[in-house]
Amino acid sequence: MRSTVVTLLSFSCGLVHGQGTPDFWQPGGPDDFRGPCPMMNTLANHGYLPHNGRNITKDVVISAMGGALNFDAALASLMFDQAIHINPEPNATWFTLDQLNVHGILEHDASLSRSDAFFGNNHVFNQTVFDETRRFWTSSVLDPNQLANSKIARQISSKAFNPTYTFTSSTEQFSLGEVAAPVIAFGDVFTGAVNRDLVEYFFVHERLPTELGWSRKTSVVTLNDILRVKDMIHNATSLITEAPPGCPASKRRDLHSGGRLYQRRA
Ligand code: HEM
């Protein structure tokens, strides 16, 4: 027993990048940094990223995302490049997980599992917010439609109740990538399907869902995979549908907008 504790402690305290494993998992302690990204937190909890959440360099990110998720090095490198400006130091080569918490740079409103900064803590998992998201995950296998619905619902809720709601077009791109992320990590990048239990387990525990049978993808994940799934989610966010064949709605005139009246008057 004592030797197990000593081994665990020495492992978690002395972890350097590249030593992560799906079997080792320990949540962040009081002196460890964690942030709003459930995957970055997960990778730190498993020791793929430094367990203390500090000194996250490009090499560390490439090794962590490759080791845990089979991400292509070019993809991991690109993600690092898009995040490094979060460190305010000039020419910084590293960031920390808590630097990701700054509202309005990468962290934004209407997250799937975090509260808006306006309401309080914007980076710790929030069960109430996540329950709102989960309401739209209506079957045991999620598809782009359900993921898109949860994204829109969170935005509407935030827009309705947060007087400082902000969601720019660049936030939209970032957000689409985040909503696609569970499919990238745990699902099918060609159909956009992903097992709901795996996704929920990941969000709630910030842990890779190996005990539910998940394992690291055997094929390398590339930027094209992300763009494909992001497109699927984006297409599914439209609230406009075709009329069913033969439906009388196809004969409906532009009654409420007065468009035809306007045409007659002009
Ligand atoms: C350098 C790598 C990464 C950085 C710097 C990063 C950073 C962030 C940040 C700042 C957020 C918070 C956005 C918000 O306010 O909602 C976020 C959210 C998220 N990230 Fe990451 N991320 C990285 C990689 C990944 C990867 C590889 C995955 C999974 C494949 C992932 C999955 C997610 C998910 C699912 C969310 C949404 C959380 C929510 O809406 O509650 N991230 N990430």
Summary?
Belongs to the chloroperoxidase family. This is Heme haloperoxidase family profile domain-containing protein. With 266 residues, the protein is mostly helical.
The CATH superfamily is Chloroperoxidase-like
Intertermini distance: 87 Å
% residues in beta strands: under 5%
Q: Given this structure, which CATH class is correct?
A: Mainly Alpha
Structural class based on helices, strands and sheet pairing: mainly alpha
Strand order in space, largest sheet: 1-2
Number of strands: 4
InterPro entries: Chloroperoxidase (IPR000028), Chloroperoxidase-like_sf (IPR036851)
Keywords: Heme, Iron, Metal-binding, Oxidoreductase, Peroxidase, Signal
Protein name: Heme haloperoxidase family profile domain-containing protein
Family: Belongs to the chloroperoxidase family.
